[in-house]
């Protein structure tokens, strides 16, 4: 199974997500806006950033797509990960699923996509800014990306990868059981190991509750890129509307780790790229700001139209009555 999964990684050029060095790029300075100036990462500007990710999702400008039905998760998600490893890659904490059996289909995707890995983007201590995508300009404290691939799509074509992105919010009371084991291992194992060391988590990680997460029918969809070098524009993005909730204690598990240079890993999010002429869709189940704003405008326009129509009708009726009365007065004379 391991070779089956690692081969697509090499072909896709996203192995940089697994290496600590990652050809020298960092989140310092302007958080990824200048990555394209490096000859090693030509996709990262894509000319005018026209196919780059992440983006700011302006909910009032999203478009309903009736084909964005609920997702279907294979039964393998109910099994513990037999071959899994957690690594501090120098930029984030990443869990590699080397089983190569967990797939997702539906959701407007063409064919089945197999889980490769998932990783975190987050801010710093006491920061509410950490997610890569934003909603109407607003960040969440963190974001988790499930990176999946479709072996039937050529490596350099759009649709080779599909990423499921979940916002993460901090709750005063909630301990998320789905992310609990991962966050516990980050705190106890990965942050105490050297950057680049891989921690085997065989038969300990349970992903079965992810398909049961509430709100999986409420999401946004657009086409974009990897949010780290090489920034390949091959990704079909799904960004779920409802965040996953974790406790402050669990969130703190992400903070305080260091890279191979001893620098603290924090604020590891790329800033929002221009949407340009791309269309951002929302699923029929997305009952949120997009629908509310659209409905609000619709009702406002309807109300204004009705009022104007009433005024025009009353004016016409009054004019007709006056003409009739004038005509009768003329006849009487």
Order of helices and strands: HHEEEEEEEEEEHEEEEHEH
Rg is 26 Å
Structural class of the secondary structure composition? Answer: alpha+beta
Q: N- to C-terminal separation? A: 104 Å
CATH topology (level 3) name of the largest domain: Carbonic Anhydrase II
Shape: globular
Summarize the structure.
With 333 residues, the chain is α+β, with helices and mostly antiparallel strands.
Features:
5 helices; disordered N terminus; transmembrane helix; 13-stranded mixed β-sheet; Carbonic Anhydrase II; 23% helix; 333 residues; globular; alpha+beta
Task: Give structural notes.
This protein is of the alpha+beta class and 333 residues long. The protein has two domains: 2-286, Alpha carbonic anhydrase (Carbonic Anhydrase II, Roll); 288-333. Helices cover 23% and strands 22% of the residues. The chain contains five helices and 15 strands. It starts with a helix and ends with a helix. Residues 1-22 and 289-314 have low confidence and may be disordered.
